Amino acid sequence: MEKVQQAQEISYGRGNVISLEKGKIPPQAVDLEEVVLGAMMIDKKGVDEIIDILNPDVFYREAHQYIFEAIYKLFENSEPIDLLTVSSQLKKDSRLELAGGDYYLIQLTQKVASSAHIEFHARIILQKYIQRSLIKISNEIIEESYDETTDVFDLLDMAESRLYEVTQGNIKRSTETAQSLVIQAKKKIQEISNKEGLSGIPSGFDKLDRLTSGWQPSDLIIVAARPGMGKTALTLSMARNMAVGQNIPVAFFSLEMSSVQLITRLISSETGLSSEKLRTGKLEKHEWEQLNVKVKDLEKAPLFIDDTPSLSIFDLRAKARRLSSQHGIKMIVIDYLQLMTAGGTGKNGNREQEISTISRNLKALAKELNVPVIALSQLSRAVETRGGSKRPLLSDLRESGAIEQDADIVSFIYRPEYYKIDEWDDEERSPTQGQGEFIVAKHRNGGLDNIRLKFIGHLGKFDNLDDFSTPFEFHSKMNEGEEDDPFSTTHLPSADEAFGSSINDSSDDDEVPF
Q1: Of 245, 275, 281, residue with least CA distance to 263
Q2: Which residue in 144, 165, 256, 404 is the catalytic one?
């Protein structure tokens, strides 16, 4: 018993004795750190297995951090990794003595015979690091909580953000070297070159995807329009194309419509049954069968809808983090930005500053989760008072210029048909009925364009515009080859024969095929 007590005591200074009985030592696994580093220096297979799991910060001993950094540099430069090369790299970095010298490196390699179980050991080291990180973060939160000048909502957001980083096993470093960033960029370019199709998340609209190469991770995309233009219809169509068509997890935050209303719109789009029929429930027997069959894909889709009203930016970030960690969402849609609140920091009566806070936080959320965020936005009434085509401009963004500043892409929805304009204001003079335009007015990383889309009003959806979008274009294409073949007997169909009934015809007498 005496020996145990002596072991629990150490001398400190002259005659002072302190007890470790109630003292706390940070979680650590120094013995496993030694084993892992030794295994990496004697077996390249061990390096390949754990190089993506660990980083220098996870090691408790500073000497071990220097050794791992040397190994990592050798790995990045595709150089051999062994006792001699690690020692040489440490000498180049002027850290050999700080790492314990050659003698310590030799000791590490003598502690193991192979890299067996190295991944298991590495994950224990990572767990100890996460425990230390939680202790550090908790202490910071406690200290900030005692500070009366701290805004409680900022503190909540900071706490949740830091804890989210820990749950992802990705405690972020404050800075990165140009060398490591170049390697990351080259790796990403290589992945894109090897990948078939788009580099980002496909919207399902072909011309738009060609322009953007898909919605890119960490981008904030603003889709703005006046009421009635189809903002919700467009983003719901995109969400459907992603979740149902591509099985890509999507989070849809609706501050305006209820989740049941949104899913009813999607059911209408998916089944071809008009919203009016679904709203009244007046379906024929075959339409009920059609409904039951067509919604099966929608039922299985990874689409998550949240209809919390007056959602604050801090609540949205918290919900998005949980959806990201639990369901791996790849896209976030917010309908719409002006209905959000900024929480505690925005209650100062200045709506413009509040919107600035919201847009800035949405961009931060996109970067944090590394997913594209689409936020719908209202336009000012200046569009309505403008003469001519009433085409929206960047200056029409409502309440804050910060939206334009924070966004990577700013786009508008424009349907001339809404303003009783029968023809497009261009050389084609083609009819506007059943058509809309997706205007990309700002694109930080690409070009600008105006993209025509098909608008199907009674189903509340947008779709790709067919090559022969109007009877005029169809007849023009068919007549192009007639002069070359004067004996051609090709029958040119009428507009009704070529295109069937109007896409906006929502008569209950129409039967929609399965």
Answers
A1: 275
A2: 256
Lowest mean pLDDT among 175-184, 298-307, 439-448, 472-481: 472-481
Query: Is 0.70 surpassed by the pTM of this model?
Result: no
User: Per residue in 177-216, pLDDT tens?
Assistant: 677 677 777 777 776 666 666 778 888 888 888 888 888 8
pLDDT in tens, 113-141: 888 888 889 889 988 998 898 888 888 88
Q: Side chain identity at 231, as an amino acid letter?
A: K
SS3 at position 47 = helix
Give CA–CA dist 510/273, Å, rounded: 10
For residue 334, what are its two tokens? 């917010």
Q: What is the largest CA-CA distance in the chain?
A: 117
CB 432 within 8 A of CB 470: no
62 belongs to the catalytic site: no
In this prediction, residue 21 has a pLDDT band, given cuts at 50, 70 and 90, of low
pLDDT computed for residue 65 by the predictor: 92
Structure tokens at 213: 């190469």
Query: For the chain, how far is it from start to end, CA to CA, in angstroms?
Result: 84
- Name which residue leads in pLDDT, 398 or 235: 235
pLDDT, tens digit (0-9, with 9 covering 90-100), for 262-299: 888 888 877 777 777 777 777 777 778 777 887 888 88
Tokens of 367: 């970067």
Q: Is residue 470 pLDDT above 70, yes or no? A: no
- In the chain, count of helices (H) and strands (E)? 21, 11
Q: Tell me which of 347 and 232 has the higher pLDDT.
A: 232
Beta-strand relationship, 331-335 and 373-378? parallel
Query: How many C-beta neighbours within 10 Å does residue 465 have?
Result: 20
Say if CB 201 and CB 242 are below 8 A apart: yes
Amino acid at 156: L
User: Residue 25: CB partners within 8 Å, gap ≥ 6?
Assistant: none
CA dist 425 and 391 (Å) reads: 10
Instruction: Kindly state the tokens that stand for 326.
Output: 């639990």
Instruction: List strands edge to edge, sheet with 250-254.
Output: 303-306, 250-254, 331-335, 373-378, 220-225, 409-414, 435-443, 449-456, 461-464
- The Cα 198–Cα 210 span in angstroms is 8
Q: For 36-74, what is each residue's pLDDT tens digit? A: 999 989 887 888 788 878 888 899 999 999 999 999 888
Looking at 43-151, list the stretches that DSSP marks H as alpha helix, in order from N- to C-terminal side. 44-50, 62-76, 83-92, 101-110, 118-146
Measure Cα distances from 466 to 208, 230, 474, 512 in Å.
Answer: 14, 19, 10, 20
User: Which one-letter DSSP state was computed for residue 185?
Assistant: H
User: Which residues are CB-contacts of 303 (< 8 A; sequence separation ≥ 6)?
Assistant: 239, 240, 243, 244, 249, 250, 252, 266
Asked if 340 and 316 count as a contact pair (C-beta separation under 8 A), the reply is yes
Nearest to 414 by CA among 435, 400, 399: 435
